[in-house]
Every structure is written in structure tokens, then in C-alpha cells.
Inverse folding.
């Protein structure tokens, strides 16, 4: 009789495999003892015992009884499942000893070492013993046990749409040996584990199994069904589960805070043991146990290729021997190797043999003369005739060669001409394009004036139109009709001036906002300096950080289309910022902030609070420009903080009656008195003369840029003003090029006459841009230009020297002043002078 067997839950996600395994897969650690009685091998169709399970059977008085069990069909879903191995199943699988398919015994005995308590708690399947046949009796295949049929699913990350409180239908009759599929839901992770369990298995055995799998005490595991706790003594059959049915149970922890339930990790891969016991059949039919020691390779076996079966598609790889290759010993003898550089040469004289023969007709030998040729002597040629012929041939060759050279020269000239014509065409197109762009830009400046230069252009165009209309009226009308036309012209001029003033007001608002933003950005910008390697280093100071914070607040309070909460948040930030200093200005800002907050809470429209918000913005800008609250504003204010510095370089303007610094008074080269300030001169020009100095301002910028490129400390070019350059161009050079008489001022530039000397009005020449580029390349002017042209240029230099007689003294004064500032170090005066010259 076999002992009473206790069935354990199957491993997580495992399936049954047939016992007909290949001999090479039947390796294990445990030693199997040969029994006295032989038992027939199980057929290939019978399911093998599950991995990790140990079978125990004892013989009773030499006879065994086989328990008949009804055969059950294995479900199709169980055969399709893939095994998901766990660590405990791998250890017990390595201890089994599998026998070849052709042996006559299939009984297994436990290993000599007793199993650990943890291994006893793992799931296992018990295989029923088979009866021992009598000698001469044909062994019969045992009926597969119902416990050998396993049903499991692989845990996946898919969402199982299963009602956790669903109850399986209760069958009419249950058997203790039948199995059922149990899905365990690990709470709260929701991980699903499927096991094939016997119906006679109780909850305590399941807890023992999951305590090993989850590595937590069995007392803390709770198994519930439909939200109700199941007692430990309750079996699956008592829950109403039928054979081959499915039920879902929840597993949770009694102490989820300290001992939560973790997901079951997959088992590691199988590792072959170091020693195997193999049972080998002998000649007499007995079995012998052979101990095989496994040698671990120290190197990776190379891939030697293989072949593939054409019909079945199975691939076979070539195996390599496990014997390690012989290593050569290193000799202790020191060896040297060097290639020689000697070349051996030998001189040998060789003479090749050349055999020739001549055969003539003679007695007994006939030689045909059909291929013979008759040679006649030619006319005698003397040396003079020969050289004459060679000379004629040389002349013919030279003629053809010179013709080829002439064709090449003509081709190159033709290409140069075509290239020059193409360049002229491109230059014409470029000039035309630049002129169109300039006209378009001037039109845009007239339509949308923004700067002072734009309004000067407008006033100049207005004066030009007025002069044309006035000349037309004087030419065509007289008497009362002329006076009426002049009155109408005056009304039109007044309307145009008012339109220009409206544009000036709009531009002033926009420019004011830009200047304020530029001031804030300069104050908030980091300190920058350039290192010796050309890299720019930036550094933030507490003052720049304070200025950046004030700039952000100013931009926030001037933002439009803010909600009520956002506006209140901005006002609160502004209030906390100005409360740091207690003065009349901050008190007034806080009072206006409280007033606007009260109006916002009352629901006043934004259009009605524009004046109030403008006052807050203006007062906060005044707060930012105060050096006491913003230290970075001190270096950007035009009015110095020291009152004593205002007493230096201050002059009186007789036109506006104000005292202003010297930088506000433009000084021409022949000025002897201070005169009017810049603002008064600008107002007088807009009202009377209406001259546009934009073209001369552009020419002066180009002149200063070119003088900076020479790097010889030229000073006179930086002392000239727009009016001085206008006199030099119009009165001295007649507003045209001295070479080509080109009169478009946008294409004319002033360059040095002698490039080795400093630029001055008596050392310059007015040329076009292309002519100036060619003039800079000349080294000797007397050789390139004729005496008439040189005399003409020197005459103009004399006129310029007489008019700008004070410039040399001013330049010398500038040099001495700059040398003194370099010796004493930098000063505010020198800094201002450098700004003026720049």
C-alpha cells in the first residue's frame, strides 16, 4: 500500500510536460537508488510529475496495489500554457533524476539529504505507484492520475475583465482528488496568479505556499472571497468549486503598512550543477550509477558554423572541443631583431646573340625571287638642301603654333570682355536695386516717421514743395490772384505742419516707451568684460539683481488684459516692494495701490482706471530712477548726483535762456562763440531753413569708419560736423566726383589723397565708391595722374585749408588732452570727450 499522499499547489504558471524527455535533459543532483522490482516505463502520452515535486512510495511485503482512478482529459487551455518557473521549482527540478525512455523502471526515490522546511511547503504533485509485473508478464501503462493534470495561466500585464465576486457554479457531486483552476488576485497591486489546486486543499495549505512565494509570514496572509474572509480549515470543495472549474480569490495582507504584498518575481534561469549522477545500462541488463564532474569553461567557445535541414528547417551547430589549447612558454633569452640597410650591387656584362643567315641560289638549291624588290638609287641631297627642308618644316610648325596662341589670346580677351560686361550689368542692377531700396526706405520714413532724422526729411520735402509752388505762383500769377494763391499755399503748409506735429507726438510716445525700456534693460544687465582670449565674461551683482526685479515689476504693472486676480497679485507685489522704504513717494504709491484695489473689488471698468494706473506707473518709474532705491540708476542718469560737477563746462544759450553742459552745444570748425544749443538749432531749422543733413551724416559715418580702419590715430575727421562736411562737399568739390563728374551724393565718398598722411580737408578727394577703391591701390600719384589733374586737386586743397584753418590747432589740442588723460588715468571728463568723439 502506498502512503497517504498530500498534494501541494502547483508552481505559479507551470504546466505539465510529458516524461519522455531526452537523455541529455535528465541530469540532476540527487542520486536515484535502483529498486529490486522493475516497473514499466510510462508511455509518452502519460503526463509526468510536475517540476519541483517529489514522489514517495513504499513497498508493502513485496506486493503493491494499484489504485484505479478514472482517466480525465486534459483541458486544451492547459496544454497551451507556457511555464513560468519560480526559484523553488528550479531547485527541486535540479534534484530529480530522469531515466531514459527505454529503461524499465520509472520509480524515483528521495535524495539522501532531507528536504528543507521551505521546500516541503512548496507545491508538489504526487504520482501514484504502479504495480510490479510478474516475470514474463507484459507491462501495462498506468492510468493517468487526476492530480497529474495541471491548469495554470501565465501572469501578464493585461487587465482581466473578471468579476472579482463571481461565484463558480456548484456541481452536483465533487471528488476530493479532482482539481480546479484558482485565480489569486494580489491586492492592492492587482497582480493575478493562477494555480491548479486540489479540491481537498484547505486555506492553511495555500497560505503556507504563498508565505514562501511572497516571503512573508502565513499569519499575515488573508484569503477572501466576495469580500469575506475564509477560515483556514475551509477547503476548495466546501466553497462550492466543482472539478475543472474556475474560482477567483483575493489575497491581501493583515498589516499592509509594515508588510505589504509584493508582486511575485520570475525565477532565474536554470544553472547546471558541478556534479551529475548518470545511470548507464550494462550488458547484463543491470544499471550502474556513474558520477560525472562538469568542467566549467574558462573561455567562450567560438562559433564554428553549422548547417540547416532543408525539410524540417532544424539548425545544427558544429561543436568545439573542450580541451584547452597548448600555450607556448616565454623564453628567458633576450632577443634582438634589426633589418639591415646594406644594398649589394653587382655589375655584369651580357651580350645577346643574334643569329642571321643568307641563302642564295646555287647548284642544288633554288631560292624563289618572286618576293624580291628592285631598289633604284635616288637623287643625291646635300646638307644645305636638307637644312632648307627642315627650316621650311619648322616655319610651318611655328605658324600653326602662333596661330593657336593668337586664338587663345583672342578667346581670353573675349572672355574678359564678356566678364566685364556682365560685371557692369550686375553693377547696374545693384545700383538700381540700392536706389530702389533707398527710395522705398525714404518713403517708409516719410509715411511713418519715428526719429529726428525722419522728421528732418519731412520738413526738407515740405520746403522743397513750398519752393516749387511759390515759383509756379510767381511765374503764372500776379496781383490779387497771386495773393489769393499765396494764402491758399499758406493754409496748405499749415495743415501739413500740423499733420507732421501729430506724427511727432505719436513718435514721441513710442520713443519714450523704448527709452524707458532701454534704461531698465541697461540697469538690469550684468557686468561684462572681455578677457585676453576674446571670451566675454558676465557677472551679476546685488544691484543688478535689484534692478532686474524692479524692471519685471514695472513691466507687470503696465501689462494689459489681466484678470482681476492677476492684477491684484501684481499690485500686492508692488506694494511689498515699495514698503521697504518709507518716504513721501512710497506713501503716495501705496495710497494709489489701495485705491485701485478698492475700485477693482467694486467692479469698476478698466477704461475708467487708465488715469490711475498711469499715475502708478509714472510714480514707480520715478522710484526706479532714484539712486537711493536703485543703485544702478546712478550711472545712467544724465544729471550728475554731485552738484559741484554742474559748475564745470556750463554755458548759456541766448535763444532759450537756459544753462546747459558743453555737450549740448554743437561746435563747427570756424565757430568763435558758443551760440545756440542743439535744441534751438533744431527748432530754427524746422521753422526756417528746413535742411536735411541725413546724406552728409551718412557720409561722415563712412569717413570715420574708414579712418578707424587705418589705425593711425587720425583726429580731424572726428572733429567735423555735418555742416562742415556739407560746406566741403558743396562749395569745395561742387557735389560731384573730380574724375567722372558723378553727382549722386549717395555714391560719393571722401578718401585720403595721400594715404600715408592723416585725413584732413586739404588731404582728401571726392570720388565714387569704385573710383575710391582703385585710388587706394595707387602708390605713386604723380605717375598715375597727369599734372593738370594734380594741379586741380591741389587748388581745391588750398581752398579747404583756408576755410578750415582752425582744425590743426583743435586736433593738436585733442592730442595733448588725450595724452594728459592717459598719464593721469581715466576721468569723467575724458569719458565724456570720448563719447563726444565717438
Amino acid at each position: 500500500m502506498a502512503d497517504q499522499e498530500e498534494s501541494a499547489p502547483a508552481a505559479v504558471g507551470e504546466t505539465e510536460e510529458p516524461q519522455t524527455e531526452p537523455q541529455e535533459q535528465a541530469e540532476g543532483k540527487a542520486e536515484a537508488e535502483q529498486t529490486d522490482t522493475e516497473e514499466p516505463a510510462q508511455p509518452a502520452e502519460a503526463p509526468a510529475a510536475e517540476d519541483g515535486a517529489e514522489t514517495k512510495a513504499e513497498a508493502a511485503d513485496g506486493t503493491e496495489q494499484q489504485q484505479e482512478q478514472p482517466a480525465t482529459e486534459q483541458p486544451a487551455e492547459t496544454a497551451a500554457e507556457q511555464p513560468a518557473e519560480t526559484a523553488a521549482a528550479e531547485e527541486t527540478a535540479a534534484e530529480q533524476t530522469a531515466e531514459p525512455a527505454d529503461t524499465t523502471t520509472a520509480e524515483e526515490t528521495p535524495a539522501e539529504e532531507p528536504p528543507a522546511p521551505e521546500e516541503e511547503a512548496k507545491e508538489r504533485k504526487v504520482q501514484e505507484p504502479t504495480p510490479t509485473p510478474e516475470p514474463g508478464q507484459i507491462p501495462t501503462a498506468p492510468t493517468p492520475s487526476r492530480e497529474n493534470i495541471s491548469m495554470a495561466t501565465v501572469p501578464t500585464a493585461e487587465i482581466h475583465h473578471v468579476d472579482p465576486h463571481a461565484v463558480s457554479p456548484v456541481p452536483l457531486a465533487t471528488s476530493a482528488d479532482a482539481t480546479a483552476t484558482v485565480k489569486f488576485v494580489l491586492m492592492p497591486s492587482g497582480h493575478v496568479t493562477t494555480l491548479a489546486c486540489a479540491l481537498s486543499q484547505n486555506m492553511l495549505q495555500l497560505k503556507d505556499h504563498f508565505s514562501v512565494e511572497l516571503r512573508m509570514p502565513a499569519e499575515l496572509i488573508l484569503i477572501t472571497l466576495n469580500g469575506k474572509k475564509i477560515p483556514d480549515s475551509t477547503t476548495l470543495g466546501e466553497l462550492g468549486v466543482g472539478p475543472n472549474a474556475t474560482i477567483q480569490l483575493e489575497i491581501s495582507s493583515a498589516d499592509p503598512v509594515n508588510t505589504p504584498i509584493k508582486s511575485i518575481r520570475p525565477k532565474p534561469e536554470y544553472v547546471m550543477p558541478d556534479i551529475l549522477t548518470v545511470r548507464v545500462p550494462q550488458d547484463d541488463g543491470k544499471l550502474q550509477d556513474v558520477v560525472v564532474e562538469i568542467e566549467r569553461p574558462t573561455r567562450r567557445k567560438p562559433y564554428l558554423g553549422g548547417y540547416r535541414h532543408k525539410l524540417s528547417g532544424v539548425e545544427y551547430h558544429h561543436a568545439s572541443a573542450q580541451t584547452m589549447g597548448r600555450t607556448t612558454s616565454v623564453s628567458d633569452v633576450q632577443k634582438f631583431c634589426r633589418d639591415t640597410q646594406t644594398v649589394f650591387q653587382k655589375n655584369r656584362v651580357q651580350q645577346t646573340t643574334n643569329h642571321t643567315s643568307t641563302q642564295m641560289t646555287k647548284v642544288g638549291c633554288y631560292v624563289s625571287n618572286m618576293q624580291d624588290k628592285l631598289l633604284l638609287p635616288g637623287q643625291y641631297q646635300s646638307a644645305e638642301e636638307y637644312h632648307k627642308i627642315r627650316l621650311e618644316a619648322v616655319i610651318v610648325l611655328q605658324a600653326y603654333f602662333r596661330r593657336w596662341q593668337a586664338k587663345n589670346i583672342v578667346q581670353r580677351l573675349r572672355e574678359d570682355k564678356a566678364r566685364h560686361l556682365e560685371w557692369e550689368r550686375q553693377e547696374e542692377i545693384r545700383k538700381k536695386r540700392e536706389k530702389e531700396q533707398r527710395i522705398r526706405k525714404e518713403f517708409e520714413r516719410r509715411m511713418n516717421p519715428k526719429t529726428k532724422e525722419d522728421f528732418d526729411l519731412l520738413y526738407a520735402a515740405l520746403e522743397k514743395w513750398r519752393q516749387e509752388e511759390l515759383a509756379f505762383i510767381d511765374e503764372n500769377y500776379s496781383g490779387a490772384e497771386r495773393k489769393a494763391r499765396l494764402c491758399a499755399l499758406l493754409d496748405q503748409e499749415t495743415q501739413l505742419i500740423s499733420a507732421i506735429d501729430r506724427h511727432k507726438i505719436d513718435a514721441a510716445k513710442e520713443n519714450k516707451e523704448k527709452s524707458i525700456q532701454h534704461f531698465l534693460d541697461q540697469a538690469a544687465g550684468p557686468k561684462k568684460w572681455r578677457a585676453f582670449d576674446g571670451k566675454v565674461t558676465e557677472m551679476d551683482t546685488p544691484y543688478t539683481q535689484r534692478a532686474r526685479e524692479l524692471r519685471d515689476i514695472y513691466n507687470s504693472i503696465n501689462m494689459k488684459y489681466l484678470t482681476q486676480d492677476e492684477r491684484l497679485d501684481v499690485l500686492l507685489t508692488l506694494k511689498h516692494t515699495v514698503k521697504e522704504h518709507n518716504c513721501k513717494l512710497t506713501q503716495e504709491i501705496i495710497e494709489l495701490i489701495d485705491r485701485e484695489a478698492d475700485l477693482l473689488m467694486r467692479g469698476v471698468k478698466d477704461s475708467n482706471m487708465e488715469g490711475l494706473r498711469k499715475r502708478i506707473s509714472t510714480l514707480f518709474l520715478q522710484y526706479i530712477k532714484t539712486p537711493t532705491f536703485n543703485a544702478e540708476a546712478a550711472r545712467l542718469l544724465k544729471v550728475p548726483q554731485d552738484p559741484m560737477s554742474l559748475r564745470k563746462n556750463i554755458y548759456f544759450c541766448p535763444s532759450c535762456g537756459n544753462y546747459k553742459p558743453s555737450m549740448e552745444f554743437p561746435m563747427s570748425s570756424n565757430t568763435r562763440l558758443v551760440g545756440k544749443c542743439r535744441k534751438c538749432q533744431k527748432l530754427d531749422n524746422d521753422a526756417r531753413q528746413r535742411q536735411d543733413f541725413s546724406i552728409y551724416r551718412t557720409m561722415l559715418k563712412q569717413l570715420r569708419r574708414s579712418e578707424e580702419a587705418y589705425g593711425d590715430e587720425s583726429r580731424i575727421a572726428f572733429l567735423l560736423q555735418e555742416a562742415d562736411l556739407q560746406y566741403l562737399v558743396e562749395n569745395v568739390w561742387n557735389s560731384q566726383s573730380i574724375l567722372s563728374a558723378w553727382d549722386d551724393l549717395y555714391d560719393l565718398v571722401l578718401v585720403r589723397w595721400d594715404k600715408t598722411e592723416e585725413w584732413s580737408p586739404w588731404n582728401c578727394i571726392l570720388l565714387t565708391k569704385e573710383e575710391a577703391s582703385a585710388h587706394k591701390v595707387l602708390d605713386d600719384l604723380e605717375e598715375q595722374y597727369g599734372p593738370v589733374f594734380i594741379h586741380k586737386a591741389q587748388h581745391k586743397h588750398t581752398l579747404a585749408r583756408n576755410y578750415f584753418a582752425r582744425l590743426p590747432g583743435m586736433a593738436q589740442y585733442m592730442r595733448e588732452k588725450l595724452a594728459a588723460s592717459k598719464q593721469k588715468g581715466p576721468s569723467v571728463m575724458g569719458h565724456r570727450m570720448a563719447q563726444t568723439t565717438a
Notes: The first strand starts at residue 179 and ends at 186. The two ends are 118 Å apart (CA to CA). Residues 244 and 670 are 119 Å apart (CA to CA). Confidence is low (pLDDT under 50) at residues 1-174, 825-838.
